[in-house]
Specification:
Chain lengths: ~475, ~325
């Protein structure tokens, strides 16, 4: 990394475009307001540990105000607006996201630690695309296959994770607004800043007050939101543990629930795969966003006949990954989002070694400050190892081998999760054979971690239920 | 060494017959079009600034095969081109020479005379360039004439018709014969990737040319569109990288045609750097076949030193 003749000079994206306030309130009823019973906490840049701003951990009364504002907006304006009028607002939000894309990308990288290359080329363009896509549905709901005039549910309480802060916001808010619901959204405690910037975009778009409310905070705020009796719909993306608690608390209420939880996806490489592209797919599958991806290809299943060659190629490729300043345009691997997450990655990696798997990382200098973990792979992993079963949510790849397609399938499905899978082969019939039998919501063929707003995304088994994206993504927000 | 190439064993058996050669070439790992294009596009977003840009611009100048391949070429034009290649930027003595001057065979003596012992190579296109549609004897005579006239690099074209018809051994034999006709001259094998159409074919043709002894594999004649593209060059670089892992021999890559801006050239160098590493960051292992590219490199180079862009009027046209 950076040790050869052609040493890339630093190419940092300028932070001048973002203007982070020293403290933020809550976005309720179209205004930034001070908390009633909330407290304040600091949000930091995980790449430098620099304090970025102070945000509110909203209390129960704050959540109550937000839900009341959403209810008033639902009853008063939003549910009465014709679909094409809602669509106009969504188009406006999409265009504003595009106009402010550079600012949003820089802010996302500062707050989350992900490389600017990803926030600029993946996250923010997908955010705009998601709003554009659902803007198109707003006046066509009668043709979506849910009856001639499907009705919204009311107030949606939405809790999103820290790995794709703004993109997960878009996945939640765009379909909710398109179908006529109003929302109270809680961003993750470590990554609130782009959601607060989105609050400003809502004001800029003249979105009616209360249609979108944003309450920052940690687990307690989230619990107050999902347990609030005024919420008609709960949507959550995050860990399977928290998802279980939410399912329990929502059980027996009228609330409709969708959950998008963890994963331990298999990335299956057959001996006739395009190997160089498979290597790219493996890298993109597990090292994209530092592996902080619920659908990450964290288990590589390589056919034994090519396993050695594939690993040689993979290791050579990992040697070219550039880890460091997330704002440098040439950075491939950014910072781990929080010290807690870094601790979990370290702990599970240590378990991997204790259980006898062989650990390997390329030569790689980690910055002195901030939270960092080198790209890591484990070979000699079996299905019995914890690192083959538990979600690590970091840049750690477990490499397993198989002999036949049936064995690959069996190993891929032998997990409590079922969010995604990847199949690499030049044989079309084998792709279809595998795709029909893999118990996973998304199966990628000769690619990995590709997202599109038109494509439904969601899990089997303990990876959750309900679909986001596409026509299917409307269903969770309609009374059907 | 662990198995890093698709077949184990001795590569000598591979060319025993058309059937073995075909089996070998078709046994190479496939290339996924979407994947390789995405990889090339991702590498094209690398941001090369300040010292890295200076390094890349100078390296790119040193890698240029300054080319004129027109029916209207004259000794005067070739002499002017040679003067340009020797001193690309007359206002700046630190500006390096180009790698070679590339001309048709009949103009080799002019170039040899103009370049003298400067170290700038004389490359001649031969073997009935650009179509290659001539009897083998004619092609070999073409090569010998250029070498006898003093060319130290020969850019040959492969028989794409034979390749696409699956007569791989014919293509191989022709390259071997050309290699022999070259004597000490370096052989660049033009695949004309725009006519091979698929990335699988580009990888197979690259291996074929390397097995036959080519010193370089070259994308295009410049007479067929598309000429060099970033993903095609990436596939060829992967091939030379794998070939070295298997045989220990380093083969160069030349991207020719359609590369006009310094920005494009730097993107190619990034792909070279991240695919093959330091060993290929040299004019002995990577070349640009270009004419108008040089002036843009010079303009960017001057901008790096003076901080200002000057207009195209300040750079010589040859």
């Amino acid at each position: 990394m950076g040790t050869g003749m052609f040493d890339y000079a630093p190419a940092p994206e300028s932070r001048a475009i973002v203007d982070i306030a020293p403290s933020y309130g809550l976005f309720i009823g179209g205004e930034m307001v001070d908390p009633t019973d909330g407290t304040r906490f600091k949000t930091v840049n995980p790449a430098t540990e620099e304090v970025l701003s102070e945000v509110v951990a909203a209390g129960p009364q704050d959540v109550d105000r937000a839900v009341a504002a959403a209810r008033a907006a639902y009853d008063g304006t939003w549910s009465r607006l014709p679909g094409r009028e809602r669509g106009k607002y969504l188009y406006r939000l999409a265009r504003l996201v595009q106009e402010r894309s550079r600012e949003l990308a820089v802010l996302e990288s500062i707050d989350n630690g992900k490389p600017i290359r990803e926030s600029r080329d993946v996250d923010v363009p997908l955010v705009a695309a998601h709003f554009f896509y659902y803007a198109g549905w707003a006046d066509k709901l009668g043709y979506a296959g849910f009856g001639p005039d499907p009705r919204p549910l009311g107030v949606a309480g939405q809790v999103i994770p820290w790995n794709f802060p703004l993109l997960m916001l878009a996945w939640k808010i765009a379909p909710a607004l398109a179908t006529g619901n109003t929302v109270v959204l809680k961003p993750a405690e470590t990554t609130p800043l782009t959601a607060l910037a989105f609050a400003d975009i809502c004001r800029q778009a003249d979105l009616p007050p209360g249609v979108v409310n944003i309450v920052t905070g940690a687990g307690d705020t989230g619990r107050a939101l999902v347990e609030h009796p005024g919420v008609d719909k709960v949507a959550f993306t995050g860990s399977t543990d928290v998802g279980r608690q939410i399912a329990r608390s929502v059980a027996g209420t009228r609330k409709k629930l969708t959950l998008e939880l963890g994963g331990k996806a298999a990335n299956i490489v057959f001996d006739d795969a395009p190997l160089d592209q498979a290597v790219e797919g493996i890298v993109n599958g597990i090292f994209f966003n530092q592996g902080h991806v619920c659908c990450a290809g964290s288990r590589l299943l390589a056919q034994e006949s090519i396993a050695d060659e594939l690993l040689d190629r993979l290791k050579r490729r990992l040697g070219t990954l550039r880890l460091g300043d997330p704002l440098d345009k040439n950075t491939d691997i950014g910072a781990i989002n929080s010290p807690e997450q870094l601790e979990r990655i370290r702990e599970l990696s240590a378990v991997g070694e204790q259980e006898g798997a062989e650990r390997w990382s390329p030569a790689c200098d980690l910055p002195d400050r901030g939270y960092w973990f080198p790209p890591t792979l484990f070979t000699g992993v079996t299905q019995a190892h914890r690192i083959a079963r538990e979600e690590i949510f970091g840049p750690v790849l477990s490499v397993l081998t198989f002999r036949t397609p049936a064995e690959a399938l069996e190993k891929a499905n032998n997990t409590p999760y079922g969010l995604s899978a990847g199949v690499w082969t030049d044989k079309g019939s084998r792709i279809l054979w595998m795709a029909q039998r893999l118990r996973a919501g998304v199966v990628w063929a000769n690619t990995f971690n590709r997202f599109d707003p038109t494509s439904p995304f969601g899990g089997y088994k303990e990876s959750g239920f309900g679909r986001e994206g596409g026509r299917h993504g409307l269903e969770g927000y309609l009374d059907v | 060494m662990t198995a890093t190439a698709p077949i184990a064993g001795d590569l000598a058996d591979v060319t025993a017959s058309n059937a073995t050669l075909r089996r070998f070439l078709h046994g190479l790992p496939g290339v996924d079009q979407v994947g390789v294009e995405a990889r090339a596009a991702a590498l094209a977003t690398r941001s090369i600034k300040t010292t890295a840009k200076q390094f890349a611009l100078d390296l790119a100048v040193r890698m240029v095969d300054l080319t004129t391949l027109e029916g209207q070429d004259t000794p005067g034009k070739v002499r002017a081109l040679c003067a340009k290649g020797l001193r690309p930027d007359p206002t700046d003595p630190t500006c390096p020479q180009v790698a070679a001057i590339c001309v048709y065979g009949d103009l080799v003596p002019v170039a040899v005379d103009a370049l003298g012992d400067s170290g700038v190579h004389v490359a001649a296109v031969a073997t009935a360039f650009p179509s290659g549609r001539a009897p083998l004897e004619v092609k070999l005579a073409d090569v010998r004439a250029a070498v006898d006239a003093g060319a130290d690099e020969i850019d040959m074209v492969i028989d794409r018709g034979a390749f696409l018809a699956g007569r791989y051994l014919d293509v191989y034999d022709e390259i071997v014969a050309t290699r022999q006709a070259c004597g000490d001259a370096h052989l660049k094998v033009i695949l004309e990737t725009g006519e091979l159409a698929t990335y699988d074919n580009v990888r197979r043709a690259s291996w074929l040319a390397m097995l036959a002894g080519g010193d370089f594999v070259k994308t295009s004649t410049g007479k067929v569109s598309p000429a060099a593209t970033l993903p095609v060059t990436l596939v060829m670089l992967e091939a030379v990288r794998d070939f070295r892992a298997h045989t220990g021999r380093e083969v160069g890559v030349k991207a020719a045609g359609g590369i006009r801006s310094a920005k494009d050239a730097i993107r190619y160098l990034v792909v070279v750097n991240e695919t093959c590493g330091d060993d290929w960051l040299s004019p002995d292992r990577f070349r640009f076949g270009a004419s108008s590219l040089l002036n843009d490199l010079l303009m960017q180079r001057q901008k790096m030193t003076t901080g200002r862009y000057s207009g195209p009027d300040y750079f010589t046209l040859d």
